[in-house]
Amino acid sequence: MTVMKQQSSKAGSFTFYGVQYSRFGSRLAAEVRLEAYGEDLGQQGWRSLDEQVEIIGLVQESPQGKLLDVACGSGGPSIAIAAATGCRLTGVDIEEAAIEHARALAAAAHLPLGATFVVADCSEQLPFDREEFDVVSCIDAIIHLASRREVFADWFRLLRPGGRLILTDACVLTGIVSKEELDIRASQGKFHIVPAAFNELMLERAGFELRLCRDTTEAVSNLALRLYHARESRRCAMLEEEGVGWFENRQAFLKTTAELAVTGRLSRFLYVAEKPIHT
Ligand SMILES: C[S@@+](CC[C@H](N)C(=O)[O-])C[C@H]1O[C@@H](n2cnc3c(N)ncnc32)[C@H](O)[C@@H]1O
């Protein structure tokens, strides 16, 4: 049986993403993503294909614009957005293995305006100029960034007037969660839960105008269960690839995530906000 490969990761004391990205390109991992999501874009998280189409529509309204994808992961979803919209893509993630993967994908995609991928800690001020971007997106990663105040202020700085923020938060507290459940759900490195309506308030305080706030919790329960079953049906091969401890922890994570979503206790929201033209 393969011994789980440990890698250093800057995303938290636990090495979840570093290890996850180190085997992201495996045939088995790709098969699981294909079965769970319906198309393997290299997604991590709770972005359904319908939501991907919706995000493409939102980016398309800034034709030939510049998109910054914060905590872009493998880069696959944002490269697909750039291919569909013709935007100029910049992706940032803290994990070197993710950025390496993204650079290789982008080279193969031959995007008309190209793409740049940078390793950076997105909880700090990002190394880009004021008003450099038309769209900033951050999908299922805000939970890893500690300060909404500082992060939203930086995204506001980076957007041009009239520019748009597309954000999802998969951990908005909307019910009672036990410590045992939280220990499992929060097992992927740094983790920050916020109460309902907190993101809206902080976006407003940063200067954004909220255009959309939609509960997308159903996607979490659907995708967590689909991932759970896709992995379970390949149990032997997954155990070989991941090792027993990792496999079982991940299954417990997916089961608990689905349970918290189905019962509406931990919710996911999609926010679209704009930087006013006159600030
Ligand atoms: C659930 S994944 C989402 C990836 C991608 N946005 C997607 O939709 O597939 C969360 C991502 O956040 C990244 N991350 C965690 N902490 C970070 C930080 N402080 N700065 C930048 N990226 C971070 C992880 O490496 C991981 O790629």
Describe the structure in your own words.
It is a single chain. By secondary structure, the chain is of the alpha/beta class. It has a single domain, classed as Vaccinia Virus protein VP39 (Rossmann fold, 3-Layer(aba) Sandwich). 44% of the residues lie in helices and 20% in strands. It has 11 helices and 8 strands. Strands 1, 2, 3, 4, 5, 6, 7 and 8 form an 8-stranded mixed sheet that branches. Strand 1, helix 4 and strand 2 form a beta-alpha-beta unit. The chain starts with 15 loop residues before the first helix and ends in a 5-residue tail after the last strand. S-adenosylmethionine is lined by residues 11, 17, 43-45, 47, 71-73, 77, 93-95, 98, 121-123, 139-141, 144-145. The site of S-adenosylmethionine has 22 residues, from loops.
**Could you say which structural class the secondary elements and strand pairing correspond to?**
alpha/beta
CATH structural fold name: Rossmann fold
Please give the CATH architecture: 3-Layer(aba) Sandwich
Distance between the termini: 59 Å
Helix content: 40-55%
Bound molecules: S-adenosylmethionine
Characterize the main sheet.
8 strands, mixed
* C-alpha geometry: globular
- Low-pLDDT ranges: 1-13
Discrete helix count:
11
Give the SSE string.
HHHEHEHEEHEHEHEHHHE
Mean pLDDT: 93
Radius of gyration: 18 Å
**Which CATH first-tier class would you pick?**
Alpha Beta
CATH-assigned homologous superfamily: Vaccinia Virus protein VP39
Number of strands: 8
Strand content: 15-25%
Number of domains: 1
